Amino acid sequence: MSATADLFAPALPGSDAxxxxxxxxxxxxGVATSSTGSDPTHLSDATAPGSDAGGxxxxxxxxxxxxxxxxxxxxxxxxxxxxxAVQWSSPADPPAxxxxxxPPPAPEGAQLRVPKDFPALAEVVIRHxxxxxxxxxxxxxxxxxxxxxxLEVATDPDVHRATTMRKAIGRDAHKMHAFVRxxxxxxxxxxxxxxxxxxxxxxHILEAEAGFFTRRFAQMHWSILTPRASAHWDGTAVSxxxxxRRGDAPAEDAAEDLWRAYFAAIFNPARLKPDxxxxxxxVRYWRNLPEAQLIPRLIAxxxxxxxxxxxxxxxxxxxxxxxALHLPAAPRVDSIxxxxxxxxxIPGAPIDTAAATAALLELRRGLETRNDLPDWARNxxxxxxxxxxxxxxxxxxxxxxxxxxxxxxxxxxxxxxRLFNRxxxxxxxSRDEAYVTNAVKHFKFTPTGRRRLHQSPDAGDISYYQPxxxxxxxxxxxxxxxxxxxxxxxAVTGRAMPVTKVRGTILRGADGKPFFPTVHPSYLLRIPDxxxxxxxxxxxxxxxxxxxxxxxxxxxx
Length: 557
Hints:
Blueprint: E1 4-5, E2 56-59, H1 66-78, E3 86-89, E4 114-115, H2 117-125, H3 133-144, H4 157-179, E5 183-185, E6 194-198, H5 206-216, E7 221-225, E8 229-233, E9 238-242, H6 256-266, H7 274-280, H8 295-312, H9 353-368, E10 394-398, H10 403-408, H11 415-426, E11 434-438, E12 445-448, E13 451-454, H12 459-476, E14 480-484, H13 486-493, H14 499-502, E15 507-508, E16 514-518, H15 521-525, H16 530-553
Parallel strand pairs: 2-3, 6-7, 10-11, 10-14, 14-16
Antiparallel strand pairs: 1-4, 5-6, 7-8, 8-9, 12-13, 15-16
Protein name: Type-4 uracil-DNA glycosylase
Domain Uracil-DNA glycosylase-like: 385-545
Family: Belongs to the uracil-DNA glycosylase (UDG) superfamily. Type 4 (UDGa) family.
């Protein structure tokens, strides 16, 4: 059984009668919900359905008076007045044909149990324009006293009708949010301008939706005029008044031309779907929208504009804002083959520092002049190659340059790099005996306003830069390669491996050369707990010291 609530208890003195009541759990089947019986759907003889079959009439205070309807409906059901014996009305609905006494007050302490979903449904449905909405909700409340699972029966006519009403009100609210257009009305004596809008909702939704506009336009003093009511916001509180006429709202203001220019600029004739447009922007709202004046002309011109677009053909994409201004023009490169004018050193032979430096410079130029870079790489400032002496005993490979590295053109100068340098010093490793580089040579990021948000390289990115990294390793000829993080480990091994399972161990690649996996320093920066961060930092220092000790003990490559 779904949870139920006594949401039809009378409001406490001094409380807001329209506010939702607290929910209480439904009693188990077979447990009495009142002092007059043991059946939870049983009403005592004094309140049994049909015991007061005389006609009653209820006149509510306003069209969406949920609090008034709730109080009256609760009293009617407790008194056993069936729905067909009640005539409901409100100021916006036709008056009742036959008068009758108001419902009797509910006995002190009497309760009604309903599913917890019913009050929320009723509060929305009561905004519908159908005059029969009050009777429909009364009938549902009446039936729920015996048919506890009624709302779960989607095919029931009353449930289906209420659900349909709720959807219609949701659509109407969406249209109101989308199509209200405020026009500025200057006020005398230097008072803040008031912004006035005219809107014609299908249902009684103004009071319920006013909160959306107070949040959205909190700094403006505005009024929304409708045929049935009006809402006014003065910056601190919203008030409601009588309905208005269309002529009471200003016809146009200086912003109308901006709306029309914007709409014309975003209109795409090649994607024109008039039926879909009319479904999303019904014609009944067009007269209130300044941009709607352009729609007939734009529709009429669409075929000719599409034909002209086809005749012109495709246009070349615009140059990217940060497109590689630092890269010199170069002939097209059709393969990823590395330059071999400076072959890698012979294993065991002394390193020719000058030749190795020249080879690294040529490798860098080879990447700078490529025209098949990944699209995202063309947004970076420059490629970032390694730094350190050729023939260094140990080579550290990170993931990719960060924001600061991209701007400086040097590796490991950002927050993670500074942490790495400090850890390297504490591990007793001099930068003179280390070469640092990255598996991926360009900064991959997503623009977010003024910041550039780091994006991890994917498998394709790693594969693209892998030949450059392999060539760089061959030229530097370190005794030991230390991979920092998963990206570097994958670039060296050619496959994904869990860093945590192989961290701190000496492994050998397919070429038989040793490498030492550990974590990337950025991992340490992301640890929120201070104690854990300190513990992991000490472990990282131990990894660096162990790697350096191993490298010094290995023979030269």
